[in-house]
Amino acid sequence: MSLDTLTVLIGAVGAVVSIGASMFAGAGWIVRRIDGVESKLTHRIDGVESKLTARIDDVESKLTARIDDVETKLTARIDDVETKLTARIDDVESKLTARIDDVETKLTARIDDVETKLTARIDDVETKLTARIDAVASDVVEVKIAVARLEGPPRHLVVAGR
User: Fold this and answer.
1) 28, 75, 125, 152: least CB-packed within 10 angstroms?
2) For residue 162, what is the DSSP state?
3) What is the dihedral of CA 143, 146, 147, 152, to 10 degrees?
């Protein structure tokens, strides 16, 4: 091999090594930059996450407190309404019970009075009808006797033997 070829070969190998070393150094620089950016972004994301977590926890605690307050107020109002309505229902029930008992007493008295009157009238009608039936029965006996007298004694048919 000639010196020129050797020089060209050494120059080419040097250029390839030089380009390879430059590429390797460039790749290392890119990796280092990416790592730096990643750590910055991780730090920023962690900061945002902690801030948002704190805000969410704060909003959650405020809303929980408000919900508990509303629940307490509504429970108190419901209990108050329940107490008032129970008292009113009990009052209406006692009034209606008294009225029903009063009406029952009055109607029982009236029914007893009507029953007594009707029993007396039925007994009176029974007495009158019994007397009339007895009179009619007596008249029927007398009519039978009169009819028998008019007809005379029963006629006997004499059958002649042949």
Assistant:
1) 152
2) -
3) 160
Question: pLDDT digits over 13-22, tens only?
Answer: 999 999 999 9
State how far Cα 11 lies from the chain centre: 96
Question: Is pLDDT at 113 greater than 80 in this prediction?
Answer: yes
Longest dimension (CA), the chain: 199
Whether the full predicted model's pTM is greater than 0.70, yes or no, is: no
Instruction: Classify the phi-psi angles of 152: left when phi > 0, otherwise alpha if psi is within -120 to 50, otherwise beta.
Output: left
Q: Is the torsion defined by CA of 51, 53, 55, 61 positive or negative?
A: negative
- Tokens at 17, concatenated: 């090594």
Distance, first Cα to last Cα, the chain: 196
CA dist 118 and 101 (Å) reads 25
Predicted confidence (pLDDT) per residue in 31-78, tens digit:
999 998 999 999 999 999 999 999 999 999 999 999 999 999 999 999
* The two structure tokens encoding residue 95: 């009034």
Q: What is the rounded CA–CA span in Å between residue 141 and residue 133?
A: 12
**Residue whose C-alpha is closest to residue 108's, from 100, 98, 118, 119:** 100
